[in-house]
Amino acid sequence: MSPVTLYFVLTFLICTSLGFTGILLLDRSRRIRRARLVRFSTDHPGRPSARVMRRIEAVQAAEKGGLRRKRGGIMGLLEVRLQEAGVEITPAAAIGLMVLIAAGVALGVWRIGLLPPPLALVVGGGSGWFVFNVFLDILSARRVRRFNEALPDCLDILARGLRAGQPIPAALSVVAQHATGIAQDEFRRCCEELKLGVPLIRALTGMAERIGSPEAHFVTVATSLQAETGGNLVETLENLAELLRERKKLRKKAAALTAEIRVSAVILSSLPFVVAVTLYFMNPGYLNPLITDPRGQIMAMAAVASLGMGIFSMYRLSRIDV
């Protein structure tokens, strides 16, 4: 093993070990803090007092937002992202997956001779973070889309139950029985939290935060305003369901108007790779200078960067917020 290879491997192992050690220590301190809050400040055995509940909520809020001031917000932000994507793994496991992706990319880039070991580590680390976040974005968008598609029907069922004289918890249980997919899981979880004594507004707020959908926040705001001001919740829910259906129609119209841009983006972004694969099979040595020659490597990286900027520009042009 050459000295450069040994240096590369040792540096990667040391960084990985330090990262995992820090992650485990941070998770352990968080669990100890939560257990200490509940164990030493209760009015009744096994039942936290109001003071403890406020402190636990403050800790949870710090873990989601204010944690940035203490440790960069990485663990809290990652936990929120995993919740929104519906991925049931710990932040430590997610960072472990990022490290594995980064290791694979770094070793691959280094082995084919594109970059020296230090730059390969940098490229691998950025690739691990980027690939995992794109994966979470895809899962989150799919989860939000499925929830929003089922939400208007759920609101109609809830409004009919309230119009028939049912209390809100009973109407929510009916929604949980008749809904499908992610909406059924989330409303069922709300019903279970209500049975355990969680206030309605807090249960709905938790659902909106887990989904990360503006429509779910609309439902929470409408319900909380009705609870505070005594407005007509049935009419509000019916109007909200109709509004969500209109937004869905507008999104479909926007998708139809921007279909040409999206198809052009797919064709133009895939064309360089199709040409490269074709040239490789026709003349395998034709593209070797792009890999072996430093000038070719610079040209290849510049081409990839310009292609990425073009794809991003077309993506922004085809995206219309409704």
TrEMBL record:
Pfam families: T2SSF (PF00482). This is Type II secretion system F family protein. GO terms for cellular component: plasma membrane. It comes from the Bacteria. The chain crosses the membrane at residues 6-26, 91-113, 119-139, 254-282, 298-317. The keyword 4Fe-4S does not apply. Residues 155-279 form the Type II secretion system protein GspF domain. Keywords: Cell membrane, Coiled coil, Membrane, Transmembrane, Transmembrane helix. Residues 233-260 form a coiled coil. The lineage of its organism: Bacteria, Pseudomonadati, Pseudomonadota, Alphaproteobacteria, Rhodobacterales. It comes from Pseudosulfitobacter pseudonitzschiae. Signal peptide: none annotated. It is found in: Cell membrane. Its main location: membrane. InterPro entries: T2SS_GspF_dom (IPR018076), T2SS_GspF_sf (IPR042094). It is a multi-pass membrane protein. The keyword Transmembrane helix applies.
